[in-house]
Amino acid sequence: MDAVPALDEPLKKVLGPATAKVMAEHLGLHTVGDLLHHYPRRYEERGQLTHLADLPMDEHVTVVAQVADARLHTFASSRAPRGKGQRLEVTITDGSGRLQLVFFGAGVHKPHKELLPGTRAMFSGKVSVFNRRLQLAHPAYELLCGDVEETVETWAGALIPIYPATAKLESWKIGKALQTVLPSAQEAADPLPESLREGRGLVPLPEALLKIHRPHTKADVEDARARLKWDEAFVLQVALARRRYADAQLPAVPRRPRPDGILAAFDDRLPFTLTEGQRKVSEEIFADLATDHPMHRLLQGEVGSGKTLVALRAMLAVVDAGGQAAMLAPTEVLAQQHHRSVTEMMGELAQGGMLGGAENATKVVLLTGSMGAAARRHALLDLATGEAGLVIGTHALIEDKVQFHDLGLVVVDEQHRFGVEQRDALRGKGKQPPHLLVMTATPIPRTVAMTVFGDLETSVLDQLPAGRSPIASHVVPAADKPHFLARAWERVREEVEKGHQAYVVCPRIGDEEDGGKGKKKTPEDEAEKRPPLAVLDIAEQLARGRLAGLRVEVLHGRMQPDDKDAVMRRFAAGEADVLVATTVIEVGVNVPNATVMVIMDADRFGVSQLHQLRGRVGRGSAPGLCLLVSEMPEASAARQRLNAVASTLDGFELSRIDLEQRREGDVLGQAQSGTRSSLRMLAVIDDEEVIAEAREEATRIVAADPDLERLPALRTALDALLDEEREQYLEKG
What is the pTM of this model? Predict the structure, then answer.
């Protein structure tokens, strides 16, 4: 039987079963290689050797001295009322002065046995004063024997690595375990091709691992970090480059619009001209659709930049070419909204097979989970026969019963709401892989797009259509300045009196059973000692109080789909003045007459979510107003987050702020926001240059050697990164 490579050796064989069990359960570390890649979070400096006569206050010092005296005292305290408390006082001397060390509680046992009078040791800790005498409380220490000079120098000058630890396993125990496995670092296979490593002046991997865990200088740490960041960026970009390469080998039916087809007819009936950005992005998409391998494109655009129109033109191009196009929306409200706006924009072009339909019209069907049996049967038949060129729906589109005549394009709206499996299931419904267009209104910094969506080509719409109005945003500090909140409701009234409409958004519905008892409370809940404000409560309070006499309606996710649709229709038609809603209105809802939005408990929402919500107003010619109501104190992080949202309408800037606060999740993991990241050293926001360069190198290497036959160590690193779950994630990307 072959020997297990050193880095694949299970930790239980090297460290013993008890330590290995804690490392596996609490830190996700199973092999020697896993532990070597568990990097220090930061480094402590023990400080240069200090004479006892020259001790500085409040600084971390290291001294070499001899124990002159050690005494154990017992005392009574609140924790040990019967006089069972223990304190060990040790006096040390180095010839220049004397210093007292003190240890308490359970911490006295080990030093009581080891620090006997006459013992020489190094002591490290922070200098403080007690009873007008200098002391070190609970210092770290190392007994000296053998070659004292060498030990003193290496110990005192060293940088002490501080590791991400758990209550069950302290940092110094992890450090000790690393000491045991560090020799194996010499056998680490280097995934970076030699030419790349030398060209960029990066140290070899074994050296980087030694320097990150046992640095002699800060320069060692910098060398190691620079190298390990490159590993993470490069291996990840190779995975994505291989994905892009494999996609480019798949067959797809080219779809080109006809010069006299439905797309041309649609363009002729548009009451406005496309923005420069819409034209440019449409050309990128049409060029992809015309190729014989599947398009994989991410369309990201600012809230209200007209992504739906660009997607609809792509869908009509596919219908022109004899295919069908499907749009997948995350919620029924949004699917109905898209269906309504698409049929309105298309007019008689959406009336295929009907009286009054245009000559080259098609059918546009809606498919959602809550449709009646007859309507559903009808829709399924239109899809199977090809009568319906366009279908808009929710997850219901993915079910086994749904058959397409010839699916040519899948448009996924609000990518972050869908699991990979769902996109994959829909793509599997084409006879050949369909083209894929993913849309998101959550602007994504370029580096995140290169990592999270690195297998997609990216198009950006950052120009708002003409006639869109600016949105003013303000934080309303309800606790500090209640009169600001009263003024907010006055502003809502003023807008309604001008003939406009308003949204009021709350974090909760309010009909939850047991009022949320037994739920885990967030720190904010604890801080405020109250649950988040609820739609049903606020709607009732407003209708009776501040907004009495206005037509107040309610919309939330637990309503029956027909009721939701009816409320949205009434609001869109101007038959309601104020819509009190949860975040079901977050994406895609388009009522140009709504000019003001009040977000209650705004601190309970994420930065990107607030930006999305705000994008529901200012969609017409009148200016928009967004009021962020919060009871959090001015100095809190939550308020700073709200101030950031109020200060800019630039979604890309806000997404950077959002990401810096949340940190990256596992960029390959399905949630894209897990606690443990596959990136330990690389920061997606800060390391933009490394990621961009790694992407170029990866693309070049994969084009020359798609199976990485000439780079076995890189293949091994890739296999380690792409465990089964992540492999599937990329497969389905």
Answer: 0.67
